[in-house]
Design brief:
The protein has 290 residues and is mostly helical. The protein is built from 12 helices and 7 strands.
């Protein structure tokens, strides 16, 4: 039902008596509820009409918009008392003029207006067909960078700390330059995030497990030259060779399974010596030794 307000001095006096005379309520919980409801009613009765910026109280004829939840004076809406009475008895929802205008617009118009009000000016994403990186052109840049990313995410962790001095500063400057492509409208915009993801893994790989900081500095200088020349595939091959060497351990294939079997057999003997009740299923040790 449509929500309206009209003069109701008698009801106001009744509600205010509940607020000013809470001792009349014998139940403390009921007193709290009465006071809270009265405060809520008083707060509701002090809504501001968006047309005149004055309060809409219970002494005023007012209408509540069901969409923006704003109270409006009848006189501000230029509604006669006869029409106001019909509206107050109607079951239809009332919408103010502003909300009616919004409702009458199509969805696309509303979205475009919201963009104009809320979003700053920006340029569209650059056309990937204008990309160029080293020997790659156009969409090949995107494809190759994605392929490199798919390889390095499987690498073992082998990154050295960024050196201090000129080499470290050059790395930061190059990374900043790549990041700026995302907001400067550069043709590299569409591939920027991928480049930022692969850059540390390609440039900061330790040459060996025992390499020192001095060697890291020289390696980084050399790799930065290759990066700036767009020779990502050469950097990838170097990283793959390093990862291959890291993957060579002193243990042969099946080492983990053999260690597990040995530990299980030791556990069986220790349980028997302690007189424990835990026993392995028949043939379980034979299965492990296969």
């Amino acid at each position: 039902m449509m929500k309206t307000r009209s003069k109701s001095v008698e009801n106001k006096n009744t509600d205010s008596s509940k607020l000013t005379n809470p001792d009349q309520c014998t139940d403390p919980e009921e007193t709290n509820k009465t006071v809270s409801q009265a405060i809520k009613d008083l707060r509701t009765l002090t809504e501001t009409c968006p047309i005149c910026d004055l309060k809409v109280t219970e002494y005023d004829d007012g209408l509540l918009c069901e969409r923006c939840h704003s109270w409006h004076h009848r006189t501000c809406l230029k509604i006669s008392k006869t029409e106001y009475k019909k509206l107050s008895e109607s079951d239809d929802e009332y919408l103010c003029t502003r909300c009616l205008k919004t409702t009458s617009k199509d969805a696309d118009t509303v979205v475009e207006e919201a963009k104009e009000c809320c979003f700053p000016d920006h340029e569209n994403v650059s056309d990937p067909s204008r990309l160029k990186l080293g020997p790659w052109n156009s969409w090949e840049v995107l494809t190759k960078c994605e392929e490199i990313y798919g390889v390095i995410v499987k690498w073992r962790r082998n990154i050295f700390l960024l050196p201090s001095g000129a080499a470290g500063k050059a790395f930061i400057e190059e990374m900043t330059k790549v990041a700026n492509n995302f907001t400067s409208g550069s043709a590299m915009e569409s591939v920027t995030i991928t480049l930022l993801m692969i850059m540390p893994s390609l440039l900061l790989q330790k040459p060996s497990k025992r390499s020192k900081a001095k060697e890291h500095t020289e390696v980084l200088k050399r790799r930065l030259v290759l990066w700036q020349a767009g020779k990502l595939e050469e950097l990838l091959r170097e990283g793959q060779e390093i990862q291959r060497r890291l993957g060579k351990g002193k243990h042969k294939h099946g080492h983990v399974e053999r260690v597990f079997t040995r530990l299980m057999m030791q556990k069986e003997k220790s349980v028997q010596q302690c007189g424990g009740l835990v026993k392995m299923p028949p043939g379980f040790l034979n299965l492990l030794q296969m």
